[in-house]
């Protein structure tokens, strides 16, 4: 990828290990990476330079991922920035409501911690509609499919869930 | 004979005319000659509505009723009347009836009401003598404990052969004052019951207490509901805890995944710096696993507080001693404030110690996060209305609304990798185990106040329970 065309990713996560991990993976894949440890700092960085994609954690001190997302969507230019959510709170009370709001109205895609570097890069490239290898394409498709299924399962009633389970068991 | 009867007797015909009355009646209600009954009994000008007496003319059975009339001096009077149909001559037609009234005073009525009240109030009432034998018992009591008059109260309440320890009735016999306690007994069906009992002195002549009245409220159902609520809360907590645990592990796995990736990348590129960076990440996350497991174990210890009489002031001073240096190193003043007349209380020393260290170390962290100088942490203990109050306050970063909602939930932390999210949760758990409450008052940027309140009554009843 030519240097001046490198896509810029802003990684927002309150845990330094996660930031380092995602940053390394993105750098390896040829992206330009900026990091922020909470929503406030992320906003400051966005004001200075608009990234091509935001990798966002949900539960953070000061300004949470959900709060930051709401602020971005009110702004004409910032609302267009694609967002990928990387969270450990996808299924608990702290993150479920926020995640539902965000997946319904916005980014639509989330990865649940722990993430594999390959899946992460494939998902990022998928959102940015970048050229990908055959393997990355497959992974991206799988991540999308997994996401769709997760969304369906999260919003399904108990009866549907039962049917789904039976269906899957039949196939085995 | 008719004239001598000790009741007020009158004979009345179908048209309400009094046709005969005895001396007692005349003396009480005055002249009745050529008068209607309602004129004499009630000084009315028209027959009473729903006259119960006239009923006997229809079905020929006698009736009893009570009513209010006016005597010959114009004074209101309560009376109980019995009415009999009078047969005269042949045939079945009744033309006269006889009304016998017995006047009752206000006091009689009041006594009657008291008796009804005594029997019908939805609690167990018994009167016991100095020998602890039951002299009287109300309906509810007899229903629940059977025929008990003359028996020892401890035998009836608890099927015991000897007097109970800490018997509130015994205390009342001694000091004449009211006493309260919570007791466990066995009802007539052999079921265990819980009741809250209050004892009061009945003084009959002289100064000494001749009898004690025991009023007990059955709280068995209440206890059951309480236990159900606790059980439901416990189950919910288990669910939350498991979810929280899963989240903590996911975070650690994320760190391990990252470390593993960076190490292998470094190996591939022969980049020592990268290998080191990844290795450090792995080490950090292994350490996190250790501290998570340790915290988790200490949190999951589902034990009753080991209560003992301790001086809360000593506890506060211990904490100040423990944290003085740590705070000073970060440029934070750690102060203590001891309220007036703080008395010893039944607390679990180690538990409250943990609560206070959690709150103080949080307060120090908040001061470090705040951006102004001259930060301080104040730890105080004081007496409220039947309450022991601990408070830890700071003028650090404060807590914003969004976070305040979550601070007492499992594994919530704003300290990134530094916290396990168990500190406040453990604190709340310990406070609840003491029957107390913890609350927080804080706004972002304005510091925070954590207040732990312990009801002295709850502390002593929990203490008693743990000794039983």
Describe this structure in words.
The complex is a heterodimer of chains A (172) and B (468). Chain A has helices spanning 16-28, 39-48, 65-74, 96-105, 117-127, 134-154, 158-171, and strands at residues 8-12, 32-36, 53-56, 83-87, 110-112. Chain A is an alpha/beta fold and 172 residues long. Chain A has a 5-stranded parallel sheet, with helices on both faces. The termini of chain A are far apart. The model of chain A has no long low-confidence stretch (mean pLDDT 80). Helix content of chain B is 42%, strand content 25%. Chain B contains 14 helices and 17 strands. Chain B has helices spanning 23-29, 37-41, 55-59, 106-120, 139-145, 153-158, 168-175, 220-269, 272-300, 312-329, 349-369, 401-404, 423-433, 456-467, and strands at 8-13, 18-21, 63-70, 76-86, 96-104, 124-129, 134-137, 179-186, 192-202, 211-218, 308-310, 333-338, 345-347, 376-384, 387-394, 437-442, 448-455. In chain B, the strands form 4 sheets. Chain B has a 5-stranded antiparallel sheet. In chain B, strands 7-6-10-9-8 form a 5-stranded antiparallel sheet. In chain B, strands 12-14-15-17-16 form a 5-stranded mixed sheet. The radius of gyration of chain B is 39 Å and the shape is elongated. The chains are: A alpha/beta (172), B alpha+beta (468).
């Amino acid at each position: 990828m030519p240097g001046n065309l490198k896509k810029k990713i802003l990684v927002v996560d309150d845990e330094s290990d996660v930031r380092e991990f995602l940053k390394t993976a993105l750098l390896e894949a040829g992206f330009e990476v900026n990091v922020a440890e909470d929503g406030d700092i992320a906003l400051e960085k966005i004001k200075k330079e608009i990234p091509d994609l935001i990798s966002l954690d949900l539960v953070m001190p000061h300004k949470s991922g959900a709060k930051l997302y709401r602020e971005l969507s009110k702004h004409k230019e910032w609302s267009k920035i694609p967002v990928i959510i990387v969270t450990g709170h996808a299924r608990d009370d702290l993150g479920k409501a926020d995640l539902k709001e965000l997946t319904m109205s916005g980014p639509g895609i989330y990865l649940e911690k722990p993430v594999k570097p390959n899946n992460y890069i494939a998902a990022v490239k998928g959102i940015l509609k970048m050229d990908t290898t055959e393997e990355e394409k497959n992974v991206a498709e799988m991540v999308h499919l997994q996401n769709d299924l997760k969304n369906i399962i999260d919003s399904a009633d108990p009866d549907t869930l039962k049917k789904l389970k039976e269906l899957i068991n039949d196939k085995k | 004979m008719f004239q001598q009867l000790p009741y007020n007797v009158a004979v009345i015909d179908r048209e309400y005319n009094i046709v005969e009355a005895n001396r007692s009646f005349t003396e009480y209600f005055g002249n009745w000659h050529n008068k209607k009954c309602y004129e004499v009994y009630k000084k009315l000008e028209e027959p009473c509505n729903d006259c119960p007496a006239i009923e006997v003319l229809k079905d020929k059975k006698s009736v009893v009723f009570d009513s209010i009339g006016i005597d010959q001096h114009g004074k209101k009077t309560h009376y109980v009347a019995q009415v009999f149909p009078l047969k005269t001559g042949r045939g079945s037609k009744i033309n006269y009836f006889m009304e016998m009234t017995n006047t009752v005073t206000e006091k009689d009525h009041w006594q009657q009401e008291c008796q009804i009240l005594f029997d019908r109030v939805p609690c167990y009432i018994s009167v016991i003598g100095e020998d602890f034998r039951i002299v009287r018992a109300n309906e509810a009591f007899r229903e629940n404990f059977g025929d008990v008059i003359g028996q020892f109260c401890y035998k009836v309440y608890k099927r015991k052969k000897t007097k109970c320890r800490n018997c509130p009735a015994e205390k009342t016999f001694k000091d004449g004052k009211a006493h309260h306690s919570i007791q466990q007994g066995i009802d007539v069906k052999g079921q265990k019951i819980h009741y809250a009992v209050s004892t009061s002195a009945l003084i009959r002549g002289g100064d000494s207490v001749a009898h004690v009245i025991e009023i007990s409220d059955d709280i068995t159902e209440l206890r059951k509901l309480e236990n159900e609520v606790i059980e439901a809360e416990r189950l919910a907590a288990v669910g939350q805890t498991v979810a929280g645990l899963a989240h903590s592990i996911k975070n650690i796995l994320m760190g391990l995944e990252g470390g593993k990736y960076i190490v292998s990348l470094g190996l591939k590129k022969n980049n020592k710096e990268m290998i080191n960076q990844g290795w450090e990440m792995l080490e950090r996350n292994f350490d996190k696993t250790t501290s998570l497991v340790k915290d988790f174990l200490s949190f999951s210890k589902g034990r009753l507080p080991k209560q003992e009489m301790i001086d809360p002031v000593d506890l506060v001073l211990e904490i100040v001693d423990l944290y003085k240096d740590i705070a000073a190193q970060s440029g934070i003043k750690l102060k203590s404030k001891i309220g007036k007349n703080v008395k010893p209380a039944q607390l679990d020393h180690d538990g409250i110690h943990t609560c206070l260290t959690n709150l103080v170390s949080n307060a120090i962290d908040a001061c470090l996060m705040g951006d102004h100088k001259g930060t301080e942490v104040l730890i105080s203990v004081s007496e409220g209305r039947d309450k022991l109050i601990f408070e830890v306050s700071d003028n650090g970063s404060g807590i914003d609304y969004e976070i305040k909602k979550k601070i007492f939930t499992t594994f919530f932390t704003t300290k990134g990798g530094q916290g396990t999210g168990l500190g406040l949760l453990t604190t709340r758990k310990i406070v609840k185990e003491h029957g107390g409450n913890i609350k927080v008052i804080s706004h972002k940027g304005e510091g925070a106040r954590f207040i732990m309140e312990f009801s002295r009554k709850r502390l002593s009843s929990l203490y008693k329970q743990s000794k039983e």
